[in-house]
Hints:
Number of strands: 10
Largest sheet: 6 strands, mixed
Number of domains: 1
CATH topology: Rossmann fold
Distance between the termini: 14 Å
CATH superfamily: P-loop containing nucleotide triphosphate hydrolases
CATH architecture: 3-Layer(aba) Sandwich
Number of helices: 7
Strand content: 25-35%
Bound molecules: adenosine-5'-triphosphate
Helix content: 25-40%
Order of helices and strands: EEEHEEHEHHHEHEHEE
Mean pLDDT: 93
Amino acid sequence: MIEINTLSxxxxxxKKGNERKIPVLEEITLHVKQGEIAAxxxxxxxxxxxxxxxxxxxxxxxxxxxxxxxxxISSLKESEMADFRLKNFxxxxxxxxxxxxxxxxxxxxxxxxxxxxxxxxxxxxxEKLMMEVGLxxxxxxxxxxLSGGQQQRVSIARALITNPPVILADEPxxxxxxxxxxxxxDLIRSLNRNxxxxxxxxxxxxxxxxxxxxxxxxxxxxxxxxVQRHAI
Length: 232
Ligand SMILES: Nc1ncnc2c1ncn2[C@@H]1O[C@H](COP(=O)(O)OP(=O)(O)OP(=O)(O)O)[C@@H](O)[C@H]1O
């Protein structure tokens, strides 16, 4: 499903004409099968966000190949990449990134509106998913009227509403207390099982990585360990 082969990237820092190249990712090779949960673990500064940004096509790597569902993404033009991203990826962030002026239902509905789905169909699809993620009771609540865990459920539902095959999650429980973290991890696991969605989770937290079928550990831009914990 996701194939990253000998990916390297560096950033140039310093004044123009006097730049230094700092390697951030070195010869990364990792593969994620369809339906797996993969965790990319690493301390702050190890290169996790850079790897996720390259995987999502927000950044073009210096060298190496990134393919998703057989499509090599570095060969896509910017507009093709935007289209590819919409169809293939859902995003979950540590800080939820909900629209404050929309209630829970409307936040989840938004991607379907953008896609041009008609209102009655949207309602049916959103209500079904809200039930699945345990949000039916709070459909009309605005983000500031929801707990952190509920806000993350909304953002997970919004990521899933267009049925993307892959969810990219950046520290999805980083803003939550440990009890709520466990609830969200259980939800991710059950959505992965029930819907067959592939998850790539970047985290510094071994607890979060514990739900993954496959763990990759980054240290100073190098993959130090790729562990298959349990098959799907
Ligand atoms: N645009 C940039 N220009 C120069 N250096 C950068 C840039 N973006 C990131 N870096 C450097 O690359 C390294 C990896 O950063 P990255 O954000 O990928 O790490 P991370 O593991 O996601 O860290 P965190 O967990 O703190 O978000 C860091 O040393 C960072 O300073």
